[in-house]
Amino acid sequence: MIMRLVKPRRVVRRNRFALVASLAIFAAGAAATSSCSRSNSHAPHTEAVAPAPAPTESEIRDLDIAFYRERSERDPSGATDLAHLASLYLQRSRDTGDPRDVLRAEESARRSLANRASRNDAAAQVLASSLLAQHRFTEALVVARGVRDRNPDSAPLRAAVAEINMELGQYDSARVQFSAVSDMPGARDNLSVAPRLARWAEIEGRPDEARRLMRHLLALARRQQSLPREQVAWFWLRVGDIDMRADNLVAADSAYRSALATHPGDYRVLAALCRLASERKQWSDAIRYGDEAIAVNLDPATLGLLSDAYAAIGDTARSHEYAHVLDVAVHQQPGAYHRAWSLFLLDHGRNLATVNRKIREELRTRHDVYAYDLLAWSLHKQGRNREAERAMRMALREGTKDPLLQRHAADIANAVASAAARNAGRGGNRRDGR
Prior knowledge:
By secondary structure, the protein is mostly helical. The protein contains 21 helices and no strands. The chain has 4 domains: 1-30 and 56-135, Alpha Horseshoe (Serine Threonine Protein Phosphatase 5, Tetratricopeptide repeat); 154-204, no CATH class; 207-264, no CATH class; 336-434, Serine Threonine Protein Phosphatase 5, Tetratricopeptide repeat, CATH 1.25.40. It is globular, with a radius of gyration of 25 Å.
């Protein structure tokens, strides 16, 4: 399972937004003047000219990117424009899922910091976020700690460090950080801080608290007229995710549909609806939503769901086709071995030894509950259930109430119990639980 937390951020509009808005206003005014002039003439027929449509948020962002890219090229020694550009690239990557924009954000942030290392925390924050998006957690933690240490009273910066601690499975450090952040004034009303507190509550097995907090934040986000629709949809998405992990599928469906109405075509929401339909075994809906999602972004988890959905309706050729696309998509993505791909391979009994080796490599630096869940599942799939049982205890150590973890734990426990019963019946002393 991939946990992908999205931090709310502002759209940089400034000069380009003013230019676009001015053009739209000028076009509307010209149309009105033209219409008025024609109405005062003796011409028998008048034809109204429709005002120019207002630019969309994504169009404004693309104009901003072009604007700051051009400015940074004219002044390659500057830092501020490069920091703005890096932020915009990162924002677009979250909207479209394009990993190339994550790399562009990292490159622009590093150039900004190379030009001015001091008093440039904006670029450092984007650098940390871009590294986090690539699952380069250890590097991200170094950068995030530096920014936090320079701004010790900032709740968002302390929460950013805590989030990376959580992703790395450094739960004692995360607990200290989140406890301190939670006590800071306004933290639970901060759209950048509180979603991280909610995710931490889920990890610690407090899903009801996480749900209440995310619904509170959703209400705040919906009241902020300046917040981009993509970000408001993300809050609906997070509410739906929490409901789905609590097996409240009706509530999850409602939240996801509200997210899609807020930001039509959002690939993250379409992927979530695909996942929900698969859980309900509504295969045609899963295929429809999944195909719409991957038309925007080749998300490995969604490709795996599509492969399973086609297999469920008996279309093995399409199932194999999507499994192949999944392999290609994963190998093209930057960062560590993709967990969704690992889970897909394990569920289908493929490349078990290779997946197990990759998981152990990741465990050298990342010790979160989902890493241990993957290790346990890979051992179970190899019939090494006693070892899987030990790994599963590590996956459950924080009390996380996730159906995936609970399902894996139950299957492993049943396998161990069945092996013990068989051994007892034979009077044997086998200890491997196979």
